[in-house]
Amino acid sequence: MVRMPEGDTVWRSAHHLHRALAGEPLTRSDLRVPKLATVDLAGRRVTEVVPRGKHLLTRIEGGLTLHSHLRMDGAWRIYALGERWRGGPAHQIRAILANAAHTAVGYRLPVLDLLRTAEESTVVGHLGPDLLGPDWDAEEALRRLLADPGRTVGEAVLDQRNLAGVGNVYKSELCFMLRISPWLPVSAVPAPERLPALAKKLLEANKNRAARITTADPRPDVRLWVYGRAGRPCRRCGTPLRSADQGQPGQERPTYWCPRCQPSPDA
């Protein structure tokens, strides 16, 4: 089962990249996408690496930003000087940024752009409040969630224009923990302010963990309530969990829920 990187994963990637690259000049720059094949950033200093929702912004002196998005299975890996690269075969490498001590290698990156730092809004300006960002605004996130009251909760929390950072795992876990069906209209959610509040709490709790935990139990087989557990018993009531795709045609995403703890609106 492939788990799409979510806001906590991207935050952690940005933290590691910043620690390895920031403040030092690049000794190597190799961007392996056609539109950037002739770009050479060697000699420029990386000023900082920051996350924005599921986006990574590597800011480089001279007013440039290398923008990447991990989507389904992209990843940045950090290696010490002389360390063997283990992130995947060479043909999956899309970017290499190195300084005197570390090398950052981007594998399977579906999005890689170089733009002016002053123009970052063209790639992240549409995003809602960032759950792990310094500008987090719970009231604004709630306002955006409620702006389309007929939309299902599952689709609304996954929409990065409402709040940035929630993916498939947290979508399912949030709904289960709040005992609401992912197919419930946003307008029917009791105390809807709980949605952004719990999302914030979960991502904050997991941003420094390699293994995502929502049950408070770190054991590998019990870390999550429902995600990836279709057909297995609900941890609360024992009812077999269910899964189904949710979303508009072409944008469907898997959703997991307990039909007893989270009855559907038409049940």
Give a verbal description of the structure.
Belongs to the FPG family. This is DNA-(apurinic or apyrimidinic site) lyase. It is a single chain. 21% of the residues lie in helices and 21% in strands. By secondary structure, it is an alpha+beta fold. The chain folds into 2 domains: 7-124, N-terminal domain of MutM-like DNA repair proteins; 138-257, Helicase, Ruva Protein, domain 3 (Orthogonal Bundle). A 4-stranded antiparallel beta sheet has the order 1-6-7-5, with helices on one face. The chain has a 4-stranded antiparallel beta sheet with strand order 2-3-4-8, covered by helices on one side. Strand 6 (93-98) and strand 7 (102-107) form a beta hairpin. It is elongated.
Distance between the termini: 29 Å
In the residues, how many domains can be counted?
Answer: 2
Task: Count up the helices.
Answer: 6
| CATH classification, class level of the largest domain | Mainly Alpha
Beta-strand content estimate: 15-25%
The largest beta-sheet arranges its strands as 1-6-7-5
What structural category arises from helix and sheet content? alpha+beta
Give helix % range.
10-25%
Task: Compute the number of strand runs.
Answer: 10
Backbone CA Rg: 20 Å
CATH topology of the largest domain: Helicase, Ruva Protein, domain 3
In the CATH hierarchy, the architecture of the largest domain is Orthogonal Bundle
Which sequence of SSEs, written as H and E, runs from N to C?
HEEEEEEEEHHHHHEE
Question: What does the overall shape look like?
Answer: elongated
Low-confidence stretches: none
Average pLDDT level: 95
The biggest beta sheet reads: 4 strands, antiparallel
Protein name: DNA-(apurinic or apyrimidinic site) lyase
EC number: 4.2.99.18
Family: Belongs to the FPG family.
Keywords: DNA damage, DNA repair, DNA-binding, Glycosidase, Hydrolase, Lyase, Metal-binding, Multifunctional enzyme, Zinc, Zinc-finger
